[in-house]
Specification:
Layout: H1 5-12, H2 16-19, H3 26-29, H4 32-61, H5 74-119, H6 154-167
Helix pairs in contact: 4-5
């Protein structure tokens, strides 16, 4: 559930200065290095509060060392949630900043690759045969046998004569 800035200020008191920069427009004005430093600080605070909530919960169950402050403290849990929400906002800003840098890097690499390709010598092989003179006959692979024209019908005539002899 989202918490308003006024509720965060009431809940955190003096610690509100730690998360003040995690709200817009101050978050948008942060540089990448400042955002990373703020995320580190917020993560430390969130982890510290998470440990406190965890140890209180263990003490209430009788598993950890018993302490006087081991009662259920919803304010402590809400403080942890406020730091977690602030960390989530700052992480989103860091990801946006890194995304812009990543896109700029890839765009520059693509432009460089295009420049290398355009500067390279083009390889255009010869066009080969063209249709300007029309089609040419392709040489046939079949064997051509030359025969004496006088012998052309002799085979079929020999077949006829042999059949006539058998028929009697």
């Amino acid at each position: 559930m989202a918490t308003s800035i006024a509720a965060e200020r009431r809940l955190l008191g003096d610690d509100f200065a730690l998360i003040a920069n995690s709200h817009h427009p101050a978050l948008a004005a942060l540089s990448a290095e400042d955002a990373v430093a703020l995320a580190r600080l917020l993560r430390e605070q969130r982890d510290r509060l998470r440990g406190m909530v965890h140890s209180n919960r263990r003490a209430r169950r009788g598993k950890g060392e018993p302490r006087a402050a081991a009662s259920h403290d919803p304010a402590l849990l809400r403080r942890k949630q406020v730091f977690a929400a602030a960390l989530k906002r700052v992480n989103a800003r860091i990801e946006a900043l890194h995304g812009e840098a990543r896109r700029a890097f890839h765009a520059a690499a693509l432009k460089e690759a295009l420049a290398r390709k355009q500067a390279a010598r083009r390889h255009h092989p010869g066009a080969g045969a063209s249709a300007a003179a029309g089609m040419r006959a392709k040489a046939s692979g079949k064997r051509r046998t030359r025969m004496d024209p006088r012998n052309i019908g002799s085979i079929s005539q020999a077949g006829k004569n042999a059949q006539a002899r058998r028929d009697g």
